[in-house]
Amino acid sequence: MIIRVIIFLILNFGSLAISGYFTGDGVPSDWYQTINKAPWTPPGWAFGAAWATIMICFSFYMAMLWQNKKQKSHILSLFIIQWILNISWSPVFFYYHEVLAGLIIITSLTIVIGIFIYRFRFQMKYKSVFLLPYFLWLLIATSLNGYILLYN
Questions:
Q1: Domain residues for 143?
Q2: How many domains does the chain have?
Q3: What is the pLDDT of residues 76-133, one digit of tens each?
Q4: Cβ neighbours for 136, distance < 8 A, ≥ 6 positions apart
Q5: Are 36 and 152 in contact (CB under 8 A)?
Q6: At CA 149, angle to CA 145 and CA 151, rounded to 5?
Q7: For 36-63, what is each residue's pLDDT tens digit?
Q8: What ranges in 44-131 are assigned the alpha helix state H?
Q9: What distances in angstroms separate CA 120 from CA 30, 124, 126, 147, one per listed residue?
Q10: CA 124 → CA 8, 110, 119, 129, distances in Å?
Q11: What is the CATH number of the domain that holds 74?
Q12: Count of CB atoms within 10 A of residue 131's CB?
């Protein structure tokens, strides 16, 4: 179990690192600083804390879920889709300033995490709580992205 957790920690934090590398200036950029943001936009420090918590919880969830021998290909497919979407959003939104494409990506990512919760709810039972930080943060992030699309 420990080895699986470490592997998923590397994969998940690796996705954040790759995303950050292709994001450009991101939050401190002139573009982001001057756009109209939602009143409920969290302070900048909250994003790092949230993503660290999310990726730790998601890594434990995936390590526990990976024990399912019958559905490995389904689990792997969902994980890869999640991984690609997670990496894609930041550069699309922050570097290319494609707010609509960002909204499509983050909405898709929210749906994929929702599928994890729904599809494996009986197998994972109370362990599904490990996905709640990810799902709730994505709901907030999707609303922030949507607000920026509507009001800019």
A1: 2-151
A2: 1
A3: 999 999 999 999 999 999 999 999 999 999 999 999 999 999 999 999 999 999 999 9
A4: none
A5: yes
A6: 115
A7: 999 999 998 898 899 999 999 999 999 9
A8: 44-65, 72-90, 99-119, 121-124
A9: 42, 6, 11, 31
A10: 17, 19, 9, 9
A11: 1.20.1260.100
A12: 22
